[in-house]
């Protein structure tokens, strides 16, 4: 591979372009992107990761079944004070199937703010969101419930592995976190760790951190739609994600909110901590395991409940068992009474016999005394 990479490094952009075209690969992008694309093609070919006749589609990183792109829009002023509390006013989600390498569904909703119910002119000019759109929208807790229902409808509550993708750390670490505090609700589990696409992009293509428009430019793509529209921004981020996957990038969660509390008066304070690949995969596997355990526990509880219901479904059986127990006890008592009565009769008979023997012995003793007295009397008479 080192020889092949050395050969590619010496090629001009035109030569790389011609090679990619011959291999039926994407030819869009600047030279560094094209070089990376060609190198990864030969790397995967050498590792046997591609099937013959399908070399143009060699994305094999499907660690996540789905990737969900989120790019919030929030209330703002021309000159925000450090203590300004942003409220989410647009909530878009773009769902990418990593196997199909395409967008398979979208969710979109405006959100009604409560602290800054009137949008500033600057905010409307920047985002294109009107006062009427937010005034007619649901409040954040209601929208979040709809989002969770939408995620569940795609099996993203444990059935499939997915993670959130953002352009930078602010959407999850500042906007979502702050909004949950304002609304007084728990931070959603899926928003505690995420993939910062800027980090993934710079790491894979060996570039500095770039904003959305420059990442698109490096890939030879143009921005589609209106900048700072949450939905359009999310769609363009999704295009970058698909390019990364197609070029062979292995995408993983790489950020989470910092464990400490960021100072409210310091907008530049560190909001996030980096997540290593090992930690990202371990936490993802643990979440899958917990979900599986919860499902098994639920099934077991259902089975126990069902068994309990079956046991209580036949009260007549229980009555019958009680009757049998009572009858057995009665028979045992009767038997005990019979034995007791028999013993008493034996005692009485024995007692009567003893009394009779004593009476006979007494009579014989009396007869014997009378004879002796008569004999003694007879002797006295003869002597006289």
What does this structure look like?
With 384 residues, the chain is an alpha+beta fold. The protein is 56% helix and 11% strand. It is built from 12 helices and 8 strands. Strands 1, 2, 3, 4, 5, 6, 7 and 8 form an 8-stranded mixed beta sheet that branches. Strand 3 and strand 4 (102-110) form a beta hairpin. Helix 1 runs antiparallel to helix 3. The chain is globular.
Keywords:
eight-stranded mixed β-sheet, disordered C terminus, 8 strands, globular, 384 residues
The overall pLDDT, averaged over residues, is 79
How many angstroms does the end-to-end distance come to? Answer: 163 Å
Low-confidence stretches: 52-57, 305-363, 365-369, 371-384
Q: Helix content range of the residues, please?
A: 55-70%
**Into which percentage range does the β-strand content fall?**
5-15%
Counting helices, strands and paired strands, the structural category is alpha+beta
Topology:
Blueprint: H1 2-10, H2 13-22, H3 31-46, E1 66-70, E2 73-74, E3 88-97, E4 102-110, H4 121-127, H5 131-135, H6 140-153, E5 162-166, H7 170-183, E6 193-196, H8 197-205, H9 212-218, H10 230-246, E7 255-257, E8 272-274, H11 277-313, H12 315-383
Parallel strand pairs: 1-5, 5-6
Antiparallel strand pairs: 1-3, 2-3, 3-4, 6-7, 7-8
Helix pairs in contact: 1-3, 2-3
A few lines on this structure:
With 384 residues, the chain is of the alpha+beta class.
């Amino acid at each position: 591979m080192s020889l092949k990479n050395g050969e590619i490094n010496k090629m001009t952009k035109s030569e790389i372009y011609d090679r990619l075209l011959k291999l039926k690969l994407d030819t869009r992008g600047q030279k560094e992107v094209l070089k990376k694309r060609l190198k990864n093609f030969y790397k995967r070919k050498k590792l046997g990761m591609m099937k013959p006749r399908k070399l143009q589609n060699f994305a094999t990183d499907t660690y996540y079944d789905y990737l969900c792109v989120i790019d919030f829009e929030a209330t703002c002023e021309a000159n925000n004070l450090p203590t300004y509390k942003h409220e989410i006013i647009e909530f878009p989600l773009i769902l990418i199937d990593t196997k199909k390498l395409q967008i398979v569904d979208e969710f979109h909703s405006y959100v009604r703010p409560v602290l800054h119910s009137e949008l500033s002119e600057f905010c409307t000019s920047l985002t294109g969101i009107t006062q009427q759109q937010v005034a007619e929208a649901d409040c954040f807790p209601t929208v979040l419930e709809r989002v969770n229902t939408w995620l569940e409808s795609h099996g993203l509550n444990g059935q499939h592995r997915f993670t959130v993708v953002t352009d930078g750390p602010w959407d999850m670490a500042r906007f979502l976190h702050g909004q949950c505090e304002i609304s007084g609700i728990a931070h959603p589990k899926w928003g505690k760790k995420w993939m910062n696409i800027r980090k993934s992009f710079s790491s894979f293509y060996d570039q500095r951190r770039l904003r959305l428009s420059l990442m698109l430019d490096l890939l030879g793509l143009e921005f589609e739609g209106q900048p700072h529209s949450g939905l359009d921004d999310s769609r363009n981020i999704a295009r970058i994600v698909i390019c990364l996957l197609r070029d062979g990038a292995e995408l993983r969660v790489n950020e989470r909110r910092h464990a400490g509390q960021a100072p409210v008066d310091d907008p530049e304070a560190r909001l996030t901590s980096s997540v290593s690949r090992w930690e990202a995969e371990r936490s993802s596997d643990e979440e899958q395991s917990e979900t599986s355990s919860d499902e098994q526990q639920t099934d077991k509880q259902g089975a126990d409940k069902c068994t309990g219901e079956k046991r209580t479904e036949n009260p007549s059986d229980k009555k019958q068992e009680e009757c049998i127990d009572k009858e057995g006890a009665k028979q045992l008592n009767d038997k005990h009474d019979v034995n007791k009565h028999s013993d008493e009769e034996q005692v009485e008979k024995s007692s009567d016999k003893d009394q009779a023997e004593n009476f006979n012995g007494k009579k014989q003793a009396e007869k014997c005394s009378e004879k002796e007295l008569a004999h003694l009397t007879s002797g006295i008479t003869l002597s006289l």
